[in-house]
């Protein structure tokens, strides 16, 4: 892991100034903790349980280390492709060993009563070994500086988020691993189709005391914004590409029905009709936690790497490639009764690249069943996951399918230290004979230790 020298000065300064506030985590307003207390927390609520006295700064971080024991295979037809030497469908031989650790730096500040700011930095990760800023945003739960009783009354039910942030499309992004932050995920990896993007924009939430909430958001639709005028021609319209804003929204119900039973159900949508390069399904700058599975040895040998651990940092995932236009819908169901919880996902999305005339479609569904015990602490768990994606690829009229089954066990040694183990099987079905994923399968175990504070 390359040392992030550029941030050492900042890290030392913030560590020194932050030591007196490190223990004040529970005093941050409208905040999701970076440790076990953040499990099963989605959007922050309007529960105002903390009084504001003065500005507070919380310096936190996440660090994970993993040991991988995966093996893969395929039955693809040998293919040669210039400028690479040999069969590009030959897989990289895998062995057991430690993979690259990942680390995040989190800085949260309570600037005023009801106003909080967040900055998250990827110190090191698989995809970008150097330091990268994930994003930063300010969240308004009160607007007392406007000195308006009317607005103060409205803000008792409203939250406003402004900046570059993780777009709130669907619920699965609240439970995914994010570089060094794997505390919220009871499994090792995220879903096969990983909906995650940081974009510049605004989200406005309305919360009702009965448990209903609704959100509307608008973003630039880009991970990497640009002010350079478009020159590419959209194949579907014959016109120069436009950089339109993207819109997303969510409606849901989240209620603790009784001491033991919690119900949450949500529906989300995201649409971007024209983009420079939309990354809703490829916005992760950290990379997959399944290293080098289903990767080409020939292409790896012929690739010059630049600030990346390998040429295929998202191995094990599937990106449908809707970079020009995307329309997506996701429904989620979360049930928790005592220590038993179920998290379900159904997603349907369609879109295209700029060179395509017609839309393609992809669907995904997943179910996570997790049991946390003992009842008074819930610091141990066992879980199973099933995840499946069916999609149409560019230039192929037939749908491909990817299925994953995973089982996990885990232990929160303290609220800040977690260990987990997973056994996973993933199969690739109906891929063309010349595709490296034809007859593809990987399986094996993963061990991971994670710290969050």
Helix and strand topology:
Layout lengths: L7 H11 L37 E18 L23 E2 L3 E11 L2 E10 L7 E9 L8 H7 L2 E9 L31 E10 L4 E8 L26 E11 L4 E12 L24 H5 L23 E13 L2 E13 L7 E14 L6 E13 L6 E16 L2 E13 L11 E12 L1
Antiparallel strand pairs: 1-2, 1-3, 1-17, 3-4, 4-5, 5-6, 6-7, 7-8, 8-9, 9-10, 10-11, 11-12, 12-13, 13-14, 14-15, 15-16, 16-17
Notes on the structure:
With 453 residues, the protein is mainly β. Helices cover 5% and strands 43% of the residues. It contains 3 helices and 17 strands. It has a 16-stranded antiparallel β-barrel with strand order 1-3-4-5-6-7-8-9-10-11-12-13-14-15-16-17. Strand 12 (340-352) and strand 13 (360-373) form a beta hairpin. It is globular. The two termini are 20 Å apart. The relative contact order is 0.16. The model is unreliable at 1-25 (pLDDT under 50).
Distance between the termini: 20 Å
Large-scale geometry: globular
Q: Give the proportion of residues in helices.
A: under 10%
Largest sheet: 16 strands, antiparallel, barrel
How many helices?
Answer: 3
Chain oligomer state: single chain
Overall pLDDT score: 92
- How large, in whole angstroms, is the Cα Rg? 22 Å
Strand content: 35-45%
Q: Order of strands in the sheet with the most strands?
A: 1-3-4-5-6-7-8-9-10-11-12-13-14-15-16-17
Give start-end ranges of low-pLDDT stretches. Answer: 1-25
* Strand/helix succession: HEEEEEHEEEEEHEEEEEEE
Number of strands: 17
Based on helices, strands and strand pairing, what is the structural class?
Answer: mainly beta
């Amino acid at each position: 892991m390359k040392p992030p020298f550029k941030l050492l000065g900042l890290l030392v300064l913030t560590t020194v100034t932050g030591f007196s506030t490190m223990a004040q985590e529970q005093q941050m307003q409208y905040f999701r903790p970076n440790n076990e207390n953040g499990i099963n927390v989605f959007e922050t609520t309007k529960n105002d349980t903390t009084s504001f006295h003065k500005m507070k700064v919380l310096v936190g971080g996440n660090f994970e280390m993993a040991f991988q024991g995966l093996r893969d295979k395929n039955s693809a037809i040998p293919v040669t492709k210039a400028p690479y030497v040999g069969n590009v469908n030959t897989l990289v031989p895998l062995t057991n060993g430690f993979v690259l650790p990942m680390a995040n730096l989190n800085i949260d500040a309570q600037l005023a009563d009801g106003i909080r700011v967040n900055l998250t930095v990827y110190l090191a990760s698989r995809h970008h070994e150097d330091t990268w800023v994930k994003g930063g945003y300010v969240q308004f739960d009160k607007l007392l500086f406007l000195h308006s009783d009317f607005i103060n009354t409205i803000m008792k039910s409203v939250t406003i988020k402004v900046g570059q942030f993780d777009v709130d499309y669907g619920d699965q992004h609240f439970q995914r691993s994010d570089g060094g932050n794997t505390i919220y995920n009871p499994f090792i990896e995220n879903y096969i189709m990983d909906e995650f993007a940081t974009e510049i924009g605004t989200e406005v939430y309305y919360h009702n005391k009965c448990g209903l909430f609704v959100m509307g958001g608008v973003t630039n639709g880009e991970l990497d914004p640009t002010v350079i005028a478009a020159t590419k021609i959209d194949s579907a319209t014959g016109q120069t590409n436009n950089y339109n804003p993207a819109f997303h929204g969510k409606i849901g119900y989240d209620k603790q029905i009784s001491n033991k039973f919690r119900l949450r159900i949500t529906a989300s949508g995201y649409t971007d009709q024209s983009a420079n390069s939309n990354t809703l399904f490829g916005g992760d700058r950290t990379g997959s936690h399944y290293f080098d599975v289903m990767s080409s040895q020939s292409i790896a040998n012929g690739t010059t790497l630049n600030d990346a651990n390998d040429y295929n940092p998202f191995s094990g995932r599937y990106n449908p490639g809707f970079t020009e236009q995307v329309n997506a819908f996701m429904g989620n169901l979360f049930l928790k009764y005592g220590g038993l919880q179920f998290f379900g996902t159904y997603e349907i999305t369609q879109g295209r690249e700029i060179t395509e005339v017609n839309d393609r479609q992809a669907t995904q569904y997943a179910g996570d069943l997790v049991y946390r015990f003992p009842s008074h602490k819930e610091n141990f768990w066992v879980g199973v996951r099933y995840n499946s994606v069916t999609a149409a690829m560019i230039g192929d009229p037939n749908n491909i399918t990817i299925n994953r089954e995973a089982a996990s066990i885990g232990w929160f040694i303290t609220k800040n230290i977690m260990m987990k183990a997973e056994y996973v099987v993933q199969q690739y079905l109906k891929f063309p004979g010349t595709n490296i994923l034809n007859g593809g399968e990987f399986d094996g175990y993963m061990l991971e230790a994670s710290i969050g504070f």
